[in-house]
Amino acid sequence: MEMPEWRSEYSVGVPEIDAQHQHLFALAATLAESVRSSSGQANLKAVLDELVCYANEHFAFEEVIMEKINYEHLMYHQKMHEFMRTRINLLSAQLDKGLLTENELAEFMETWLTEHIIMEDMRYIAAVAKQETGKGKP
């Protein structure tokens, strides 16, 4: 499985969020590499735990930005983040019980990361840009 690399089209225009997204891509690539290598389940679990922890930090940061700009779809975006938390916890439990393959987990992470940025995060770019040009930076 090939992990996509960060591309400029994933930029949301907020340097801190873009850097966090880039780090999430790097963690997801490490997860995919763990799946490909013979490093074993323990390494995969450690990488997954790190990715989940960092994603939670990122979600919190992103939500603060959206709150500061009074983003009208904040609650929906928070629900998307909560869905991701629930889904990844379920997938991790399924992996532990042998109900999910490592490849399925890595593919989910790849798909979620790119789709969430392109389909969900891109929606708040206009609100952030309006805030930055109007009242100052968030």
From TrEMBL:
Residue stretches making up the Hemerythrin-like domain: 13-126
Source species, domain of life: Bacteria
Residues annotated as signal peptide: none
Keywords attached to this entry: Iron, Metal-binding, Oxygen transport, Transport
GO molecular function annotations of the record: metal ion binding; oxygen carrier activity
Similarity section: Belongs to the hemerythrin family.
Name of the featured protein: Hemerythrin-like metal-binding protein
